[in-house]
Design a protein that fits this description.
Elements: E1 12-17, E2 20-25, H1 26-29, E3 33-38, H2 47-63, E4 66-72, H3 76-85, E5 96-98, H4 103-107, E6 111-112, E7 117-118, E8 120-125, E9 131-137, H5 145-160
Parallel strand pairs: 3-4, 4-5
Antiparallel strand pairs: 1-2, 1-5, 3-8, 6-7, 8-9
Length: 187
């Protein structure tokens, strides 16, 4: 089963962001691009390296009107404690969503019933609330924020230019491909 074009569930969750506990809901994400970045747990090993990488690229995501939401099954208070205790996590400005009931993790099929944790998954969600790209990988392999940024940029480009496709390693400003007209509807 694919999650492409999956309409993200109607959700309301608690979050820690910029020194405050907040409530984030589906209505908050509509109208802008979003990346939902699932990771197994706070106070872990690979996760802080990934989240620091996202924090280092956060301004780049904001420049292209894309919000980042990191998500784990930890509570908002654990997110705050981790943010306060870890130099790498202390850089984070984007909301850290608390998903202790795994509502979002189950909706996007990253929840591991055996461990109670989310698997590593990143989901690019368009302004309509639909998944347009995603990747779920092994819990022991970290992800690259620059590659996620590139995939958001490519997703934005093809949404705006529905008659074009982006080749591998495409970067904004580079040439795209115009597929033959008889194949456009089949891609």
């Amino acid at each position: 089963m694919t999650l492409l074009q999956h309409d993200i569930t109607d959700f309301t969750v608690q979050a820690y962001a910029n020194g405050e506990l907040k409530t984030i809901s589906k209505k908050d994400i509509l109208g802008r691009w979003s990346v939902f970045f699932f990771y197994p747990a706070d106070f872990s090993f690979v996760c802080p390296t990934e989240l620091e990488d996202l924090a280092d690229h956060y301004d780049d995501f904001q420049k292209i009107d894309c919000d980042i939401y990191s998500v784990s099954t930890d509570s908002q208070w654990v997110h705050k404690a981790w943010h306060d205790a870890n130099e790498k996590i202390g850089k984070i400005q984007f909301p850290m969503l608390a998903d202790p009931t795994a509502l979002l993790a189950r909706d996007l099929d990253t929840y591991n019933e055996e461990t109670g944790f989310a698997e590593r998954g990143d989901f690019i969600v368009d302004p309509d609330g639909k998944v347009v790209a995603y990747e779920v990988i092994s819990s022991n392999v970290g992800r690259d924020a620059a590659e996620i940024l590139r995939r958001v940029q490519a997703s934005q480009f093809v949404r705006e230019h529905s008659d074009m496709v982006c080749p591998a390693k495409w970067q904004p400003g580079e040439e795209t491909i115009e597929p033959s007209l008889d194949l456009v509807g089949q891609l």
